[in-house]
Amino acid sequence: AMMAIIGMFFQDGLTGSAWGDWANYTESPLRAFENELGVQEPVGFWDPLGLAADGDSATFLRRRETEIKHGRVCMLATMGYITPELTGKFPGMLSPSQGLTFDSIPNGLGAISKVPGLGWGQIVLYCAAVEAAGANNRGEAPGDFGWKLITSDDPAVKNKKLAAEIANGRLAMMAIIGMFFQDGLTGSAWGDWATYTASPLRAFENELGVQAPVGFWDPLGLTKDGDVESFKRRRATELKHGRVSMIACMGYIVPEFFHWSGKLSPSKNLDFADIPNGLSAISKVPAAGVLQWFVFCGLIEKGLFVHDDSRGPGDFANGGVLGVPNGSTLPAGEGRNRKLNAEIANGRLAMMAIIGMFYQDGLTGSAWGDWDLYTDSPLRAFENELGVQSPVGFWDPLGLAADGNVERFQRRRETEIKHGRICMLATMGYMTPEITGKLPGYISPSENLKFEDIPNGLGAISKVPLAGWIQIVLWAAYCEVNTMRTRTSEPGNLGYRPPLLVKDTEEGRKRSLQAELANGRLAMFAIMGMFFQDGLTGSAWGDWSNYFDKSVV
Q: Is the whole-model pTM more than 0.70?
């Protein structure tokens, strides 16, 4: 709703109605060209860089001329790529003096180095002749050189053909750039990626761990230099981290179902069952136990599974199938690759899983911890306050309450309630006179001013006499000072217990206060919309037909 109301404000401000027709917004310089050729659904006049925002017709016409020329050249170039693939080359000699046949000129970028210098001279002279001829025959419209091959006497048909030319030219500009790119990388405009072997990214695309749908995924470009040694070092690190994380994940899960019996430390009378599961175990295990971990890891690293540059990453001479230190191995083939791929994939998953377990354990005290146990978060200080409603819950996108400062939160809540109450009154102040009419009699007998003479909305500001404004300010000041005397420590509680609105039960009171906050928030948006619409159309319910510029209409 917040996104929607902002959109409505925007549309209302520009068109005079939340459902306003764009055709009514004639003041935009962007509309100067919206009826030009090339404006097509669904984007309409598309100018994301605002190049036409100044409404300069001469600049627009120059750019349109350039667009048409580029489009025509690109359509010819695109056909120049396609035609030789379908029809073949001309027979005979391209350059008899150099013994060069048309057949020997490759299609695409490869032709640049094959065409003789004299041929390039002919190409340049021909382009110059076409350019000069166009300068002598140009018409008033951009791209009109008096050549009427695809024109029509019917204006609608002619516009359709010219619009098609622009659209096809735009497509051809994108197409030819794509052909250049593909040709440059693969040697052909229709080149197979498999022929582009020079890419450093391809050095590792057949390695283990390359899996659908992302393929070889390296968003940070760590392997773009194609350095095999760096890749192998990173792969060995990935495998080690994955294996440790798989063991760590199992270490979190298994103790939930099974603990060793007996003593972990007889000297300290510490049972295995006394060691909690997860991060809290770090503070419970004796120093001698932690030292044993380090010694064990050192023996594994330097004694049993020793890195060997002659072997693949993560492949150790003493490491057998599933890490059993018996030197066994799987026979080479599809089955082995599938299992090694599974190990890498499971290791990646385990790395993500163990980090999640650490995070949840650290916040809630358990790897399976309930969010209700995480009471230290400053964000939770206010999640049970009034105004926390589904589906967003406690919504603070700017993090204003992230410090958990209760005093500051209560000050902001007080401000929110006051603004909401004023806006609810203001919204009713807009609506009521439209329905019930104005009070009878005079608002200012001395100025012969009746209540019915005061317009509804912003127009009233200039009509209310000065003495009336002084009364309004004094009344507001009286209310403000009086509430300072009766207010309580609860935000917005001024000691006023209006009949029908006060509930005797705690649940009923809470529901009413929730409704007040929600209605106040809605009223703040509503009154801003009314001000906006009133300012543009002269009425909070104003018709767009009232919002126009005499110089434009």
A: no
What confidence tens digit (pLDDT) does each residue in 271-282 have? 888 888 888 888
Altogether, the residues listed in the chain come to a count of 553
**b/e for 201-223, b at 16 or more Cβ within 10 A?**
eebbeebbbeeeeeeeeeeeeeb
Supply φ then ψ for residue 171, to 5 degrees.
Answer: -60, -40
At 348, list the tokens: 């990646």
Q: How far apart are CA 144 and CA 390, in angstroms?
A: 61
- Choose among 218, 199, 64: nearest CA to 141: 64
Peptide bond into 397 cis (omega under 30): no
Which residue is associated with the tokens 């166009």? Answer: 134
For residues 336 and 456, give the distance between their C-alpha atoms in angstroms, rounded to a whole number.
82
SS3 449: strand
Cα separation of 203 and 192, whole Å?
17
What is the model's pLDDT at position 23? 60
CB distance 234 to 222 below 8 Å? yes
Q: 382: which DSSP letter?
A: G
- How far apart (Å, rounded) are the C-alpha atoms in residues 318 and 326? 6
- DSSP string covering 73-120: HHHHHHHHHHHHHHH-PPSSEEEGGGTEEGGGSPSSGGGGGTS-HHHH
Instruction: Give start and end residues of each alpha helix (H) in 365-465.
Output: 406-436
List of long-range contacts for 321-328, beta carbons under 8 Å, 24+ apart: 323/243
pLDDT of residue 74: 93
